[in-house]
Design brief:
Number of domains: 3
Radius of gyration: 30 Å
Number of helices: 5
Shape: flat
Distance between the termini: 78 Å
Order of helices and strands: HHHHH
Strand content: under 5%
């Protein structure tokens, strides 16, 4: 884009600014409606009954027939991928369960480090205090 053609809104007339704002608002509304519609369509697809071959797999895993919808098919696929060693699928399963191991371990390590730093700082202060006391004697 040619930067010489860019004119800031502060240098445009009120009517031009209003026109551009109107176009932006309309485009934003259209995007929101499109995203809303896509979300509704996805929910509708996920609520549909699972295909017969998927139902057989779900049945083999012991899933209740009432729960055999496309959402369960996706959950099953993620579970099977994790069981077969797919670490990303495993991480996602753990995240869904609220057991996001990576973040918990990281938080624990950060707490341990802070405690070690605090203990080292207190130990250093104690040693300096003892040296001062001995020097004063």
């Amino acid at each position: 884009m040619n930067e010489q053609n860019l004119i800031p809104f502060t240098e445009r007339s009120e009517s031009e600014v209003r026109e551009y704002n109107s176009k932006g608002g309309k485009a934003s509304g259209e995007t929101r409606r499109r995203k809303r519609d896509m979300k509704q369509k996805m929910k509708a697809l996920l609520e549909l009954p699972a295909a017969s071959n998927d139902q057989e797999q779900l049945e083999a895993l012991g899933v209740d027939p009432e729960d055999m919808d496309n959402e369960m098919v996706l959950v099953m696929a993620m579970f099977l991928n994790a069981a077969n060693g797919d670490t990303k699928a495993f991480d996602r399963v753990m995240q869904i369960l609220g057991k996001d191991i990576g973040h918990e371990e990281l938080a624990l390590k950060k707490r341990e480090l802070k405690l070690k730093e605090k203990a080292a700082s207190e130990e250093k202060n104690s040693a300096e205090t003892i040296i001062r006391i001995v020097d004063d004697i």
